[in-house]
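I am still getting used to backbone structure tokens and would like to learn alongside you. Please make up or recall a protein chain and show it to me in full. Would you write everything just below, so we can both look at the same thing?
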Amino acid sequence: MNKFLFQRIDNTGLVLWRGIFGLLITLEAFGAIATGWVKNTLVDPQFTFNFIGFDFLQPLPGTGMYYYFALMGIFGILVTFGYRYRFSMFCYALMWTCVYLMQKTAYNNHYYLMMLLCWLMVFLPANSWWSLDAKKDPSVRSISAPRWTYLVIIFQVWIIYTYAAIAKIYPDWLDGTVAAYFMKGKADYWLIGDLLQFRWVHMSIAYFGIFFDLLIVPLLLWKKTRVTAFWISVFFHLFNSIVFQIGIFPYMSIAFALFFFSSETLQKVFLRNRPLYREGEVEIPKYKSLLLIVFSTYFLVQLLLPLRHWTFKDDVLWTEEGHRLAWRMMLRAKSGLLSVYVVNKKTGLRNNFNYNEILSQKQRRSVKTKPDLIWQLVQRIKQMEADRGNDVEIYVVTRVRVNGGAYFPLIDPNVDLANEVWQHFRHHEWILSSPEDYHNEN
């Protein structure tokens, strides 16, 4: 075990990854400003739907979030060039974690992945070569790293892909319904729009997605299939980038290949004049026990989190309980209708509350199908009414459909949600049971 984890290996892949990862997180930060993501998600809305329990994390007032993301971008640049690397990586990780937890309207699995990778990178000696730190301080300079620094990234990637594959094994994915629904919105794409409407394309997307997620890590680990697997990965992720336009995630995923190819191969392509480490010493650090405890705990959590939806009653596709932090990527499309009724306890007067006035356009779309967002909206309205001196009950009427199927009620309209307490680890009985035929069309 000591040799497996602590043997020194050449670190070419790790330092190249730091440069590429730093560039990608820099683009993510500045790109969020340039594309209007910061404006639409954090600046314009009156409030954000933060992760429940993290209400203290709120966007900075005025134009503060623009400066916040610009500072993150600067830290990303410092990571790219390996200058004060651990401090810069820690600051970016902390700032991105705050952004991630302060809003769920624009939830995306790659935001979660970025958060995890940023924190993992804080612990990795990725500045020991090809960095300003190594150039400035000879004690930092090294052409090797312990094997565990590679294994933590590989294991994290394996977890992501494996759970993504397992999550796809359900009827609407297997019969091509999900792919067909997504591709319908791409019909106007130049050159490929018409092609994406064929059923054989939908079925190819469905099954290629499952087998790619399930097999890509083993195929990259095996030397005989590594090159082929890499080019398949390039095709798969570029296809996703073009069709789904999901930011830096596809390019980050392609870059994971740096942890699988040999240092000899990487040096021939990227760093021809760099010396190659071949000694293979085993150096057991003084902090071995702490290291093992920290990473064992971390990966145990990573293995259990995607399974937690099985501890909740009913289907996660319907209830959303356990959906986040579980690598359930591109699995379903939901739309809904929502009405909110406020009842004054003193007068008995019942009014339809126009929540559109306090939500952004994107928030309006998201809130209609997600029980936790509906609950948070109700709590917000309750507080607004309390500020006006009103003691109220709040009821909601919902209709939700999954993957273009029929509409069904999601929330019990007879439950006063203003009086309900959010339970992180228990099913909420005010979420109605999923209809047996909610996958079927009208």
Remarks:
- The radius of gyration is 24 Å.
- The mean pLDDT is 93.
